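Hi C.,

You asked whether I'd gotten around to modeling the 185-residue construct. I have! Everything is below, sequence then structure, no commentary in between.
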Amino acid sequence: MRSVEDRLAARLSELRTERGWSLDELARRTGISRSTLSRLERAEISPTAVMLGALCTAYGRTMSHLLAEVEAEPPQLVRADHQLVWRDEESGFTRRSVSPPHPGLRGEIVEGALRPGADISYEGPPVPGVEQHIWVREGALEVTAGGGVHELRAGDCLRFRLWGPSRFRCPGPGPVRYAVLVVLP
């Protein structure tokens, strides 16, 4: 059985091919170098959160949707030990797909964790107007969206529709753990 990284690499290659894009065209659309894209598609390297965000934007998918495409059809009941976990060691980001995308449903739940000092920026939403509800479970999180900077503490919830860039930063002193409810328009 192929690993999640191998299936992700294959799916990224399929998406590019389906659109008839060359690696040069995808590089132009994402700002990721042609050589890095080639290595990603051959599973020689794993994408960072920022790279995956840029690729999702180019392909018009949420990160959860893309990651769900590389696993088997998700069941109605998603046991904790079957939730897809993806880590970007470079940025200090861990992402758990608690309730992955499912046919006929517009919402999903993602758990995020950032180590102190982690700072991740996305150029734009994968789907313009996507609704997000961010609920901080532990620690502190700074979210930049819609032109505003929001400082969230444990128990706080920020909700908005995303049309432009966004940024998630863990100001510390400890890590932050948060849940994101994503609802497609």
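If it helps when you're writing up: Residues 9 and 41 are 4 Å apart (CA to CA).

Thanks,
B.
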